[in-house]
Amino acid sequence: MSDAISGGETKSSGGTTIRPEEAAHFSALARDWWDAKGPMASLHQVNPVRLQFIREAIDLHWGGDVCAARPLVGKSALDVGCGAGLVCEPLRRLGAEVTGVDASAENIGVASAHAEAAGLDIRYMTGEIGALDLGTFDLVTSLEVIEHVADKPRFLRDLATSLAPGGLLVLSTPNRTPASKLLLVEAAERIGYVPRGTHDWNDFVTPGELGELLAEAGLAMGEPRGITWRPGKGLHLSDDLSLNYIVSALVN
Questions:
Q1: Which residue, among 106, 35, 94, has the nearest Cα to 69 in the 3D structure?
Q2: Which pLDDT belongs to residue 61?
Q3: Pick the residue with more confidence: 94 or 9?
Q4: DSSP 8-state class, residue 149
Q5: In angstroms, rounded to a whole number, what is the distance separating the alpha carbons of residues 175 and 173?
Q6: Residue in 189, 147, 205, 213 with CA at minimum distance from that of residue 6
Q7: Residue 50 among known ligand-binding residues
Q8: Is residue 119 marked as binding?
């Protein structure tokens, strides 16, 4: 599962964080991104679970009304590696002023068109997050992205720089375990649950590794939650981190 990637061939002060072949892979999928039964079906299935975590993190961090329909009114949000906007659009509906950034111009084109058709005002930009002068945001999300990043420490520093004082960061990524290698890479790609070539298991990041990388970027990682599946319940948040996990982080 991947929501594409966060940068492309745009140069930053220290080089790129994203491999060009990753951008090309997801660009080829752009036109089918919003097809819930197409090659990105796995994202459509996991998105409600990720959004549940994000909503809980928002309410916990800002102490808002858990019943409020638009808890992000008056706040800004940045989704890095936004793909065609599967997270940007719900964040806008929660009230945020939303910016989405992606390496792929094709993805950004699809995202912009879909948002316009839905009557949603979202700013979309193509490029490397470290090279774009975007300012800071109350909420920064980057979901299923870091496993595609070549320079993970630089990428996380760029995310940290994008956070406003008192801001909230949410990340999700596959864990590097034998189970994820078997199920998320070998089995999922073989049966077509995710497009072939989406994942390189060696680039997966464990929670311990992510915590260390975030600390180096000046961020403190919260308690990760697993995203897992079981019969009768489907995909859901759990304590099982063996496949995917999602986590929040705050400035130290």
A1: 94
A2: 97
A3: 94
A4: B
A5: 6
A6: 147
A7: yes
A8: no
Taking 3-state DSSP, the helix, strand and coil percentages for the chain, each rounded to the nearest 5, stand at 40, 25, 40
pLDDT at residue number 33: 80
CATH 3.40.50.150 assigned to domain 20-251? The reply is yes
For the entire predicted model, the pTM comes to 0.87
Please give the average per-residue pLDDT across 194-205, as a whole number.
79
Is 192 within any annotated ligand binding site?
no
Residue 85 tokens, joined:
């906007």
- Residue 42: the pLDDT is 82
Residue 107 reports pLDDT greater than 60: yes
Residue 131 phi, psi (nearest 5): -100, -10
The stretch 27-42 carries a mean pLDDT of 78
Residues 6+ apart with CB under 8 A from 126: 8, 10, 101, 102, 103, 104, 105, 108
Sequence-distant (6+) residues with CB within 8 A of 209 are: none
Question: Which one, of 106, 110, 161, 153, lies nearest residue 132 by Cα?
Answer: 161
Confidence of residue 157 (pLDDT cuts 50, 70, 90): very high
DSSP conformation class of 187: I
Six-digit token string for 112: 């912009």
Check the annotation: does 65 bind a ligand: no
13-22, 164-173, 191-200, 204-213, range with the lowest pLDDT: 13-22
Domain boundaries, the chain: 20-251
Residues 6+ apart with CB under 8 A from 49: 227, 235, 236, 237
